[in-house]
Specification:
Elements lengths: L3 E6 L6 H13 L2 E7 L10 H14 L5 E6 L3 H8 L3 E6 L2 H17 L4 E6 L7 H9 L10 H13 L1
Parallel strand pairs: 1-2, 1-4, 2-3, 4-5
Helix pairs in contact: 2-6
Length: about 160
Amino acid sequence: MSKTAIYPGSFDPFTNGHMDMVRKAADIFEHFYIVIGVNSDKRRSFPASTMAEAIEETVRANKITNCEVVIWDGLVAEFARLKGAEYMIRGLRNNMDYNYEENVAAVNKLINPELEYVYFRANNIAVSSSMVKELHSYGKDISAFVPEAVLRLVEQEDGKG
């Protein structure tokens, strides 16, 4: 039986913490999707399409071959069903993340009862997209928190402002 998973998120921006989850997933699952969720009610800091390119470059640079990056503007539980994915990957930094994820999992189980959650413990609990964006907004160096391709994207987006 094929073991397929999805790893959804806004990835705005994709961080080294996210990449840690990708490495763990690559070791366990035969195939998985990094699903960039698009919510039309939320303004992204970085375009989903260019973030997808930066994530793809990062995945290739890490020699991970059992992963695809996709952009999805629907419910992730429906994406999982469409792709035959049995598992949803989530990273946990603390008990607040767990409580939030369990509520989301309950809703997703109503939509797709076959979908099982797999939680990976984050290695660095301080790294989050929000933290990276805030540090960057104050002109701080974020190179320790994001992959090289994402750093280039962030710097390129700065040049457009």
